[in-house]
Design goal:
Oligomer: single chain
Helix content: 10-25%
Largest sheet: 5 strands, antiparallel
Structural class: mainly beta
Strand content: 35-45%
Number of helices: 2
Radius of gyration: 37 Å
CATH topology: Immunoglobulin-like
CATH architecture: Sandwich
Strand order of the largest sheet: 1-2-9-4-7
Distance between the termini: 80 Å
Length: 197
């Protein structure tokens, strides 16, 4: 093999290596950059909270009801969270059951009314001095229902509630001497978040 042939092969190999190095180097290059001044951002999540305070001076208990009788007690329901609410529901569950709770037509009925001002109590009776009471929910004593547009959907607002259990006039002799007990629970649900803020 001649020296000239060997030289050509070496030069050719160096050319291939040089081309490969050039291709590899194409991914590395310098550039100018800039960035903004940092913007301080604080985001706080809201709180969903409601509180029920007893407003009347009477215990929520009654004995010897006859058809047509009712028992009413007043409470203040307050949205003490930082967020508006989507719904507030009331669950009335029987902890002691009888025909008073199982007969949804002739048994005990529950109604919840709201007054813009505190209810006025005279003996066992309660009246709304403003005359603008609103029926929030009504139905069988054992039920779960959403309150109809209570003021306490708005953060910081309250409802003056009058909760009434009534025994209908249609209750027959089979309702005599029966007993029922209830657990009342208000549940607040957050409002629907908008798509973007």
């Amino acid at each position: 093999m001649s020296a000239t042939s060997t030289t050509r092969k070496v030069v050719g190999s160096l050319g291939v290596i040089g081309a490969a190095a050039a291709v590899a180097g194409m991914g590395t290059f310098g550039s100018f950059t800039d960035s903004t001044t940092p913007v301080a951002t604080t985001i706080n999540s809201g709180t969903v909270s409601i509180d029920l305070a007893k407003a009347s001076t009477l215990d929520f208990a009654a004995a010897d009801l006859i058809p047509g009788d009712s028992v009413t007690r007043t409470y203040t329901l307050k949205n003490d969270g930082s967020s508006d609410l989507g719904t507030i529901s009331l669950a009335s569950a029987a902890t002691t059951s009888s025909v008073l709770t199982t007969d949804v037509i002739n048994g005990l009925q529950l109604s919840v009314r709201s007054c813009p001002v505190a209810w006025t109590q005279s003996g066992n009776a309660f009246t709304c001095a403003s005359g603008e009471k609103t029926l929030l929910t009504s139905g069988p004593a054992v039920s779960t229902g959403t309150l109809n547009a209570p003021a306490s959907l708005v953060a910081g607002k309250s409802d003056n509630l009058a909760m009434t259990y009534a025994l209908p006039l249609s209750a027959g002799n089979e309702f005599q001497g029966k007993q029922a007990a209830f657990s009342l629970t208000f549940t607040a649900t957050q409002r629907t978040a908008p798509a973007a803020r």
